[in-house]
Amino acid sequence: MVLPKLPSIRSKREIGTALSEINVTPFVDVMLVLLVIFMVTTPMMQSGIGVNLPRAETDTAPAEEGLRLAVTAEKYIYFENSVININLLESRLQQYYYGKPKKILYLQADENLPYGFVINIMDIAKKIGIETIALIIEPIEKKNRSR
């Protein structure tokens, strides 16, 4: 009976070193493609809240920091970019303004909302002690007439 010749220890090491190296080039290629995809799609996902603001000739810029509350024509209330129910608005406002010395609220209300709904939101804000409620509008562009 003839025994097969076993490979030497040296030949095992040579084979092992060649197989233990991982080719990372395809991995890097895939990661770069994913990075480009996320860089292109992320700005598209950060769209604003669709509020059709009323227009006015005067433009006022917010002077101080405060909470921005957006209300859409469908009566969805956006509190810090999340939709909340009007019944929870009072408690959420109390939590937000707890311990803050100045209580300022900027209200972005759609121009097609009923007047009573906007007043209801303002009443809730006044109940918890908000001193200043500013209504955000979109300014009308003035046409320059040159003669």
Care to describe what's here?
The protein has 147 residues and is an alpha/beta fold. The strands form two sheets. The protein has a five-stranded mixed beta sheet with strand order 4-3-2-5-6. It has a two-stranded parallel sheet with strand order 1-7. 7% of the residues are buried. The protein has a domain at 55-139: 2-Layer Sandwich (Nucleotidyltransferase, domain 5), CATH 3.30.420. The model has no long low-confidence stretch (mean pLDDT 79). Helix content is 39%, strand content 17%. Strand 3 and strand 4 (82-84) form a beta hairpin. The protein is built from four helices and seven strands.
Task: Provide a short characterization of the protein structure.
It contains 4 helices and 7 strands. By secondary structure, the chain is of the alpha/beta class.
Radius of gyration: 31 Å
Low-pLDDT segments:
none
pLDDT averaged over residues: 79
The structure class reads alpha/beta
Strand order of the largest sheet: 4-3-2-5-6
The name of the CATH topology of the domain at 55-139 is Nucleotidyltransferase, domain 5
Query: Any idea of the CATH class of the domain at 55-139?
Result: Alpha Beta
